[in-house]
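Mods, move this if it's the wrong board.
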Amino acid sequence: MPEPLSKRLRSAWDVFRNYSPEETISHSEKKPSYVPLRKVGLTHGWNAFQGRERPNSYYEFGPNTSFRPDRVTIRSTNERSIIMAVYNRIAMDVSAVMIQHVRLDQNGRFEEVINSGLNYALTVEANIDQTASAFIHDLVLSMFDEGCVGVVPIDTTINPKISGSYDIQTMRTGKILDWYPEHVRVRVYNDRTGSKEDLTLPKKMVGIIENPLYAVMNEPNSTLKRLIRKLNILDAIDEQSGSGKLDLIIQLPYVIKTPARKAQAEIRRKDIEDQLSGSKYGIAYTDGTEKVTQLNRPAENNLMNQIEYLTSMLYSQLGLTEDVFNGKADEATMLNYNSRTVYPILKAIIDELKRKFLTKTARSQNQSLMFFKDAFSLVPATELANIVDKFTRNEILSSNEIRAIIGYKPSLDPKADELRNKNLNESKEVPSEVEPLDPNESKGE
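Not the wrong board. Structure tokens:
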């Protein structure tokens, strides 16, 4: 197990060059000075509510905000529609899959997990603010919104600009602002200052991940953009209809062409407005010769039909169904959703991280990145028993491996780790070697 993040950062290289390595140590390691309020059983005990001399000190903790400054912010055009629900659903499913730094055998099969800083960042803690799953969730949301996102290594063992043989300690998601031939300008959150800063870094040390569903989500004339425009029009119509305006036309019994008639009509309009606003129930009276026409009657259009058509088209292009969102999808539907939507996104992330964060020497040593999803997460309990019996009978999984899948602790019996068909009795006799017959000997002798 790697050392805690605060200890590993003491000798690490920081991408924000204006900070020394000593300043990267977490403030949580400082021992508080306090006077015990009462005697406790343990002399080395510590209480969180003691020793609060300067709880709001700017010089000790740095700048503060009332909201989380490193949280990903989606553009308002997506927040006001149902698109954010689609983004969040896919991002949650992608972040639920575990990505690990592994070693492969000679045949390209999984052999073991490599205990490295990159594996620790992908499985436990990506940075001081985010867990590994929260980092992937942030990465996918930013990739959907921007179309292309950067993964920036913040703390590394050595300077990546000097050598590629470095190990990543922490990393963050960055928004790509400008593109250069061999560099990119990214906006990354600096957890030392509590604000986002712009950095110009080489492309070889930044993981640049493009949305594999870019043609469906981020193209200017894509299905998702068309749906967003239709939803914004629908929101504008709803706000207009709910604004409280009456949209009345009053036909007066005289022709309004002279300035005097216009002034008289304006006085009449103002009088009706005062009657409606000053009345308890919004009632006004008019002359018998005047005619009132209301314009805000619901107009029939095919906007809702277009939205429903674009929504169904978007779901089909993304491999989604309504059952995936409401939790009623069966195993075949979820398998189609994972293979068409979740796995391509995971493969795009892994391929880029493998290309940028694993050197050619590491790849020649059979190092790689793989993602692992629980194959039994969608299997109901009624079918799990049959699957377990087939896996153990055909010597695919041992008993202890099955117990770990269903949540039981491993058995201490040595036979529980054997790949053996338990339905067959184990032979206790060792078969003796059969001596070959001498061809020169006759059958009668």
